[in-house]
Amino acid sequence: MSPAGREVTITIDGREVPAIEGEMLHDAARKGDVEIPYFCYEPKLGDPVGACRMCLVEIEGIPKLQTSCSTPVREGMVVHTRTEQVKHAQSAVVEFLLVNHPLDCPVCDKGGECPLQDISYGWGPGKSRVIDEKRHFEKPIELSPLVAIDRERCILCYRCVRFSQEVSEDAQLQLLERGDRTYVGTFDDRPYVAPFQGNITDICPVGALTNYTYRFRARPWDIEHAGSVCTLCPSQCNVSFTVRDERVKRVLTRDNAEVDDGWLCDRGRYGFEMFDAPERITGPRLKGGAEAGWEQAVAGAAEGLRRGKVAAIVGDASNEEGFLLQRLLRDALGSPHIDSRPSRGPKADVLRRLAEPNVSAKVRDIDEADAILVLGTDPLHSSPILDLRVRKAIRRNGAKLVVATERPTALDGGAEAIARYAPGQAAHFVGELAAAIGGGENVATPISGTLREAERVVVIWGERIAREDGAAEALLDIAAAVNMASTDGAGLLDIPDTTNARGLREAGCLPDAGPGLAETARGMATEEIRQALIDGELSGLVLFGADPLRDFPDTPAWEEALTAADFVVCFSMHENATTAKADVVFPLETHAEKDGTVTHPDGRLQRVRPSAGRPGYIQPNVVVLSELAKALGLDTGINSQPTAFAALTEAVSFYNGITDEQIGGRGIRWQDREGSTSDRLGTEGPGQVGPDEMAAPEPERDAPISIAQPEQTPGGVATAESASAVPAPPSDGGLTLGTYRDLWAGPITELNPPLKFLTPQQRVEISGTDAERLGLKTGDPVRVSQDGASVEAQVQIRERVPAGVVFMAEGVLDGNANALLNGGPVQVQIEKLGEVRA
Questions:
Q1: CA spacing 20 to 30 A to 219: which of 194, 373, 634, 797?
Q2: pLDDT in tens, 197-218
Q3: Residue of higher predicted confidence among 134 and 263
Q4: Quick one: pLDDT at residue 180?
Q5: What is the C-alpha to C-alpha distance for residues 331 and 544, in angstroms, rounded to an integer?
Q6: Can you name the residues that pair with 736 across neighbouring β-strands?
Q7: What is the share, in percent, of the chain residues with pLDDT greater than 90?
């Protein structure tokens, strides 16, 4: 982001170059196509530090050479980058760096793509005057289980340390010792374990930091780079796959300031090794695991789906796949029962209001926001890159952060005010917050006061709060209270439960909305589908990239539903408990093999491009769905991604006219297109039919409860106890269960050998007050029970957890909290293994 300022003209090597007053000379030179070498400078890290001295230039009127990375430009500045004095200085810096740097380029993983190597050839002396022995260190040192450091190669550019200190703010990496003994390390040589640690290997300008997953696996001349989008979480970061022999060997970030700011979480960086896991499904299968040919599997699936009433649930899918699947259900099978949400959600008319361009924030708006409300989510676990974005807004632009969640979050430390509400009370809390913002000073709370005083407010909200009736409507009340519709740079930004939730909604994978959120015949939602299978009202189910037994609330009920179903068709990437119950299983492509589009939570369409070969007998899912529809008597006319994309953009009114060229490598927000208005939301695209029946009216919202007036602590943060609506512990010793999704819970971690050490174990997060009452201490094994179901876990006492509530993780391999959720917040009993506690 360029600083605000007037345009000026500077002269570099005799050429006039336009620049913005106050921006760094190095940036202005780069825009003017003048190359100045550097090592330590990286705009993504923030303000320059001038540590390496490689970018020295001569500026008329200043007697000494200056570092271009830390010198702001001014009108009339005259700069020279090729004088003898500059050349001598730059050559001396290179020679100095190579005094102890090993000349092991042929075996270094950075060889061939190393800035030090390139600069040594372009600006170095070409020979060394030093004949003494170079320094030697143990090689390599395990900085973390994922990253190796070769300390003798380190040039102390400070980049990795700055990332740890100033970007991810984990503060684990430090420069230790002084002078010629300085080195990069951690306190007490502890492993550097953090969700974003892999970024330091990207920004290292030499071969000092390398990934164990890529070490000695390929060389620059025998690899290809393929740009795509990571679909392992809703962040949808832009990535570049390093491909050798049609297999992914490495994942790098592909800078897109509108989406990811050039960073990548470790889940997206290292998750690729699950592509080749032994559990990968590489061809169609019938019940019992018997392999089948494609024609046999398609014919068998079509025959089974014809026999009764069918529903579908969509999880990990592209826009085109979701669009085709809803056509298969609605047009080929005559069924309106399709959903793309793990649990309940707002009705279609509320979704249309939430999607209106004038209340929709884009990711870039976080950077310039005056106040940010994080509501009902912890971005570190639900959309990691947004966690870094919020930290950046606070650190660089002074944004005020307020947090309102059930459970403590990673962002609490930077918040001006914090509020806690009880599980199941999100709708009440949001309604009261909206009333407090619009009700004047006499009803102000620390959160409402901060939001009322700010001009540009961005609300980052978790989709799971909308499972409660009235929560989404109350969110719109907040938008109205802070005048989002009339304020540029303000808006709502949804963090959904699944990676492409917004795209699937807009493609028509909803029970009460077709493509473009158009009105359609009312069908059953996810939980209604589950109950209908149990009751025998539905006989068939199509699961596309969804694993209800792992990811959906109420595992026992889903076990019963899948057992009761007469016919189940499952599209899955890997074997799991759900595929074991399916009559026909089709393999899914990974995001490195798929061709299609996805929609970012802020409305940006992005292109997922095939980068690696498909193993075994995997076919494009778009083609498989088209063939299945044809076997059911519906000829969609779709036989490839381009034809599927054309059909999608024709059917979705606000996608009309978008081309693959417009999406390009950076994506396009449909809200930013000329002529995009809320009038296009919910309108029928060409060829779409109107509703057979209208959606049921909205239920009235329960009367809101009051938010306690939080007392300020000395640090300005409302304490959890004072700001929460958490109930007192029941007299029977029960506790209210709240759940969350851990970043590392799921097959992405378990099927990746390098990531297995991050596999979370189930823990019961409990307050010190409740732990003392129950006679528990951290590490105690316990059994958590609810209505006949139970899971085992370990106790973890957390001081920021309110009394009366416990938290457990969803989706963990052993002790999944979903087994205890049978319709919302529940009361659980905790007993220490070996003895029962009341």
A1: 194
A2: 999 999 999 999 999 999 999 9
A3: 263
A4: 81
A5: 18
A6: 805, 827
A7: 85
Euclidean distance between the first and final Cα of the chain, in Å? 58
Rg (CA), the chain: 28
Q: How many CA atoms lie within 13 A of 185 on its CB side?
A: 14
Q: Which two tokens stand for residue 712?
A: 């300020």
Residue type, 255: D
- Rounded Cα–Cα distance for residues 92 and 274 (Å): 47
Instruction: Say how far apart CA 378 and CA 158 lie, in whole Å.
Output: 30
Q: Which helix (H) or strand (E) holds 19?
A: strand 15-20
Percent of the chain beyond pLDDT 70?
A: 92
Token pair belonging to 3: 């600083």
Hey, is 695 helix, strand or coil?
A: coil
The structure tokens listed for 143 are 């900085």
Nearest-angstrom CA–CA distance, 339 and 508: 9
| Structure tokens, 35 | 């190359």
Of the candidates 234, 702, 734, the one whose C-alpha atom is nearest the C-alpha of residue 426 is: 702
Q: Which residues contact 14 (CB under 8 A, 6 or more apart)?
A: none
Q: Is the separation of the CB atoms in 128 and 98 below 8 Å?
A: yes
- The predicted structure's pLDDT at residue 726: 40
Structural contact between residues 500 and 317, judged by C-beta atoms closer than 8 angstroms: yes
Q: What is the pLDDT of residue 773?
A: 93
CA separation for the pair 232, 71 (Å, rounded)? 40
Report residue 612 as tokens.
Answer: 């690696």
pLDDT tens digits, one per residue of 478-517: 999 999 999 999 999 999 999 999 999 999 999 999 999 9
* Token couple for 252: 């790098």
Q: Position 341: which residue type?
A: R
| Nearest residue to 149 via CA among 181, 192, 178, 103 | 192
> Buried b vs exposed e over 218-253: b needs ≥16 C-beta within 10 Å?
beeeebeebebbbbbbbbbbbbbbbbeeebbbbbbb
Three-state secondary structure call for residue 269? helix
Instruction: Identify whether the C-beta of residue 37 lies closer than 8 Å to the C-beta of residue 123.
Output: yes
Helix pair angle (621-631, 319-327), 10° resolution: 10
Element (H, E) at 507: helix 501-507
Q: Position of tokens 């997953």? A: 213
Round to whole Å and give the CA distance between 677 and 654. Answer: 8
Structure tokens at 401: 């952060």
Split at pLDDT 50, 70, 90, the class of 718 is very low
Got the DSSP string for 585-615? EEEPPPTTT--EEEE-TTSEEEEE---SPPP
Average pLDDT for 78-92: 96
Distance CA 301, CA 298 (A): 5
Residue 156: CB atoms within 10 A of its CB come to: 16
Place of tokens 């600083």: 3
Q: Are 277 and 574 in contact, with CB atoms under 8 Å apart? A: yes
CA–CA gap between residue 236 and residue 749 (Å, rounded): 18
